[in-house]
């Protein structure tokens, strides 16, 4: 960290604490060369996840789109919005922890199906029918057979 008084590039941290809104970290520093103190603030850089869609276009990840799709699949089922939020948090954490900042929409669809299967099999089949574009009753039977395995 560069000292604002003398320009020296080394300092030591004297005190560190989160700000009131816990969005940043406030650090009191002391310059090694001139011994003057100054304050710095650190923020976490949020690098967005980019979704590569089927048509190869790209857009920023939007958890609301996932929530809408999951809500539609869970319509008239005993699944709470809190449960869905928790599963979306898990999906988002998985995507954020990935080294790659770009992810295909098909990968997100697979993650959604995994999470729906954990909470409600009917919602899973509903989502899968749209996601996998079922075009016959046989497609439904095949997916239901996979559930029984």
Describe the protein's architecture and organization.
With 149 residues, the protein is an alpha+beta fold. The protein has two domains: 11-43; 50-148. The protein is built from five helices and six strands. It has helices at 63-73, 81-97, 105-119, 121-131, 137-148; strands at residues 11-18, 24-31, 37-43, 50-52, 58-60, 102-104. The strands form two sheets. It has a three-stranded antiparallel sheet with strand order 1-2-3, with no helix packed on it. It has a three-stranded mixed sheet with strand order 5-4-6. The longest helix is centred in the middle third of the chain and has 17 residues, at 81-97. The termini are far apart. One of its GO terms (molecular function) is ATP binding. Belongs to the NrdR family. Keywords: ATP-binding, Coiled coil, DNA-binding, Metal-binding, Nucleotide-binding, Repressor, Transcription, Transcription regulation, Zinc, Zinc-finger.
Outline:
By secondary structure, this protein is an alpha+beta fold. The protein has helices at 63-73, 81-97, 105-119, 121-131, 137-148, and strands at 11-18, 24-31, 37-43, 50-52, 58-60, 102-104. 44% of the residues lie in helices and 21% in strands.
What are its keywords?
3-stranded antiparallel sheet, 149 residues, 2 domains, elongated, 3-stranded mixed sheet, alpha+beta, 5 helices
Structural class: alpha+beta
Oligomer: single chain
Over the alpha carbons, how many angstroms does the gyration radius reach?
24 Å
How helix-rich are the residues, as a percent range?
A: 40-55%
Strand content bin: 15-25%
Number of helices: 5
Task: State the end-to-end CA separation.
Answer: 58 Å
Order of helices and strands: EEEEEHHEHHH
How many separate structural domains?
A: 2
Main sheet: strand order: 1-2-3
Largest sheet: 3 strands, antiparallel
Keywords: ATP-binding, Coiled coil, DNA-binding, Metal-binding, Nucleotide-binding, Repressor, Transcription, Transcription regulation, Zinc, Zinc-finger
Family: Belongs to the NrdR family.
Protein name: Transcriptional repressor NrdR
Organism: Eubacterium coprostanoligenes
């Amino acid at each position: 960290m560069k000292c604002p008084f003398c320009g020296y590039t080394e300092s030591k941290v004297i005190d560190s604490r989160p700000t009131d809104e816990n969005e940043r970290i406030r650090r009191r520093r002391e310059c090694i060369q001139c011994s003057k103190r100054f304050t710095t603030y650190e923020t976490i850089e949020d690098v967005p996840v980019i979704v590569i869609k089927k048509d190869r276009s790209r857009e920023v990840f939007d958890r609301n789109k996932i929530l809408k799709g999951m809500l539609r699949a869970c319509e008239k089922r005993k699944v709470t919005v809190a449960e869905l939020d928790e599963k979306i948090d898990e999906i988002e954490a998985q995507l954020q922890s990935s080294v790659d900042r770009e992810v295909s929409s098909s990968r997100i669809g697979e993650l959604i199906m995994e999470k729906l299967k954990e909470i409600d099999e009917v919602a899973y089949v509903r989502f899968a029918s749209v996601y996998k574009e079922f075009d016959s009753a046989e497609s439904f039977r095949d997916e239901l057979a996979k559930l029984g395995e």
